[in-house]
Design brief:
heterodimer, A: 4-stranded antiparallel sheet, 9 strands, B: 99 residues, 77% helix
Chain lengths: 486, 99
């Protein structure tokens, strides 16, 4: 004891002090880094989202990754899709209204008959849904519905506010009916398309859109036959209106915590509803400048295929789950589109490595309970080479879960859909700037080992051998058992 | 804005880093061990990796990704220790004296 005291008294000079300070600083600095990481992980600011206005989250510098041609490939003569059969919700709805066991296929409209003759496997899947899955879902719902009361209530609440859908033909609904400020009825003379584009993007961000892009509308993306309720003459091909020159794309993400608890606790209604309101407001803004504008708002009311327009507008690239992946939000977002004749300056498409990464990754296909996402390569669809999802299998899984409708597991598990903190942003930057593809392999391996989900079979409802599982725990405010007496 | 996401936090981390460098420099001088640039470079890289490991664990705990925190902590922690031991032996190399 004596010698220690002497040491402290005599030898704790300036050099000793600096050495001790270095040691203490190493300990404090390391602890600080741990806390920094913890805060970065739980900080809601890294959720990214619609609540951060003024384009704060359109943070990716697209100019560095912009390309002259989009990353999909045209390999044959293009064919416009038929919304009545190619849009699964339309087809199922028509099928369920028309199908009768005694008349069978013959009792369906001609175009449905033709479709099912070409794709008999889809008839089997649609029948299986109607005859087996729906009744099972009803009976399981009666047993387990209380567990998902809050997530259902949340989903319905998010979809409760919506503008009345455009249900008139374009020549009637798209043009301004009257000028609010008096004056001439001609469109305002804009100074330049560049300035107008900047203005429109700013307005869209101010309206709450996280992402905004502009594309020259390719008529290939307009449905050949329209959806019901959009004001077009039924069962007659759409003659693409001349005033649908440009497409302004807006988009907002789905709320983070419920999205991570898919398929039972998440919802698309939140982002769809926000994007829909933004699109209708933006259309109103454009009309008041004297130009034509028409909102197209998935998932219920639109006249064109949305994903390729997002790609043309430089917001992202198509990934393996067939939906668009953006640098900021991954595929965790829901878009809406406004077609217009307001002269604009289209954005360029981008290539930030998604095509190469999706070839290696396949996490979405491995985690897809229905097997709707292919492990294989791209296929030709209506003249374009692209990933194709089996939408009938996908929708059948929707009818095999009890939560807030839908699945979105391909959103939750996608490595691009991670929080916008230092860790995942660094991984994204490494992947998109590595020309060798080695980092794709390494990052995919780490993702699979570090962030595993349940066995896909467990996502099914109990009567189909599942456990009502979710990818991650739901947020505390959606756990019904903590608030409601069962 | 949380303190750990602020500029002030990184300013204080910078001060800590300077003190660590000064401390090591004096410690090495006291033992007569030279610190050429390549030793500093290797030491800096190791510190970066160690910092990454600690922040990786913290971030995944913050994200409630416990599996990633544990597996990543073990993997990167082991790499940090192995590299640290190797680096330590390198740092302690003294120049050979002429007989």
């Amino acid at each position: 004891m004596k010698s220690i005291k002497l040491n402290i008294g005599k030898k704790f000079n300036r050099r000793q002090f600096l050495k001790a300070s270095g040691l203490a600083s190493a300990a404090l600095g390391s602890t600080g880094l741990g806390f920094f990481g913890y805060e970065a992980g739980k900080n809601p600011e890294s959720y990214t989202g619609w609540e951060n206005f003024e384009g704060a989250n359109q943070s990716f510098n697209r100019k560095r990754k912009s390309v002259d041609h989009p990353t999909y490939e045209k390999i044959g003569s293009s064919q416009r899709p038929d919304a009545r059969t190619e849009v699964i919700f339309q087809r199922r709805s028509l099928f369920m209204r028309q199908w009768k066991d005694d008349t069978g296929l013959e009792g369906l409209d001609d175009y449905l008959q033709e479709y099912y003759r070409k794709r008999p496997e889809d008839l089997d899947l649609d029948l299986y849904s109607m005859k087996e899955l729906m009744p099972k879902m009803m009976s399981d719902s009666r047993k387990y519905r209380q567990k998902f009361i809050l997530s259902n209530a949340w989903s319905n609440a998010m979809g409760a506010v919506s503008p009345r859908s455009t249900n008139e033909p374009p020549e009637k609904s798209d043009f301004p009916s009257r000028r609010r400020f008096g004056g001439p009825t001609e469109p305002e003379k804009m100074k330049s398309p560049e300035l107008t584009s900047n203005l429109i993007k700013k307005i869209a961000h101010e309206l709450g859109s996280t992402l905004v892009g502009i594309a020259k509308l390719n008529p290939d993306w307009v449905y050949l036959y329209p959806m019901r309720g959009r004001g077009f003459e039924q069962d007659k091909p759409i003659d693409v209106p001349k005033h649908w020159e440009y497409a302004v794309v807006v988009g907002t993400p789905m709320s983070w915590d419920p999205m991570y608890a898919n398929p039972n606790y998440g919802t698309s209604n939140d982002a769809y509803s926000r994007s829909r309101i933004i699109a209708y407001r933006l259309a109103s803004f454009i009309k008041q400048l004297g130009y034509a504008a028409r909102p197209h708002t998935p998932g219920t009311s639109y006249d064109l295929m949305v994903p390729p327009i997002l790609i043309d507008a430089g917001l992202g690239e198509q990934g393996r789950p067939s939906i668009v992946i953006t640098p900021e939000l991954g595929n965790n977002f829901r878009p809406a589109i406004v077609t217009t004749n307001l002269p604009l300056n289209p954005d360029k498409p981008i290539d930030f490595g998604v095509q190469r990464f999706c070839k290696t990754c396949k996490i979405c296909a491995e985690n897809c309970p229905s097997g709707a996402i292919s492990f294989g390569g791209k296929v030709e669809v209506r003249g374009y080479l692209r990933y194709q999802v089996d939408t009938a299998k996908c929708l059948n899984f929707w009818n095999s879960t009890l939560g807030s409708m839908g699945c979105r597991l391909c959103v939750a598990v996608c490595p691009y859909t991670r929080k916008a903190n230092w860790l995942h942003k660094t991984a994204l930057k490494v992947s998109m700037n590595d020309p060798t593809g080695v980092s794709d392999w390494a990052l995919t391996g780490l993702q699979k080992r570090f962030y595993p989900g349940p066995d896909p079979q467990k996502y099914y409802m109990p009567s189909l051998g599942g456990e009502n599982a979710s990818y991650r725990e739901p947020p505390w405010w959606l756990k019904a058992e903590d608030f409601i007496e069962f | 804005m949380n303190f750990f996401n602020s500029g002030l936090f990184w300013f204080i981390e910078g001060i800590f880093a300077c003190l660590v460098v000064i401390g090591i420099k004096i410690w090495m001088e006291d033992r007569g061990i030279p610190m050429p640039y390549w030793k500093w470079l290797l030491f800096g890289l190791w510190i970066l990796f160690l910092g990454f490991t600690i922040a990786f664990i913290g971030t995944n705990i913050g994200e409630k990704e416990v599996t990633a925190a544990v597996k990543g902590g073990i993997l990167f922690g082991l790499i940090s220790i192995i590299l640290g031991v190797g680096l330590w032996r390198l740092l302690l190399i003294k120049p050979k004296r002429n007989s």
